[in-house]
Write a structure and sequence with these properties.
97 residues, Immunoglobulin-like, three-stranded antiparallel sheet, Nectin/Nectin-like, disulfide bond, mainly beta, Ig-like_dom_sf
């Protein structure tokens, strides 16, 4: 989810909107939503999607970057795409099949 990595003390940040759970049907595409309601003059430059595994370990699935585009890790290549083009305030992805 798009969260600023550093904010000065007292600085207000926007709100990350996600769904607590998403239902998927085996063999069909599913949208994993994530939207950032930015405060004035904030801009999302990167969204990183992680998959939480056993023992709380996380593995990177995809990185959406404003300058460098999308990078999807090998196990997910061809299966993960960005849902919408444009500003990264909409950081939703589609997980295919």
């Amino acid at each position: 989810a798009p969260v600023p990595s550093w904010l000065p003390a007292g600085c207000r940040s926007g709100v990350v909107e996600v769904q607590r759970s998403v239902t998927a049907v085996l063999g069909q595409d599913v949208v994993l939503p994530c939207r950032y309601r930015a405060q004035e003059q904030e801009q999302v430059v990167q969204v990183t999607w992680l998959k939480r595994g056993p023992a709380g370990r996380s593995a990177e699935v995809a990185v959406l970057n404003r300058q460098h585009g999308e990078h999807v890790q090998e196990p997910y290549a061809g299966r993960v795409l960005r849902r919408a083009s444009g500003a990264l305030e909409d950081g939703a992805i589609v997980l295919r099949n």
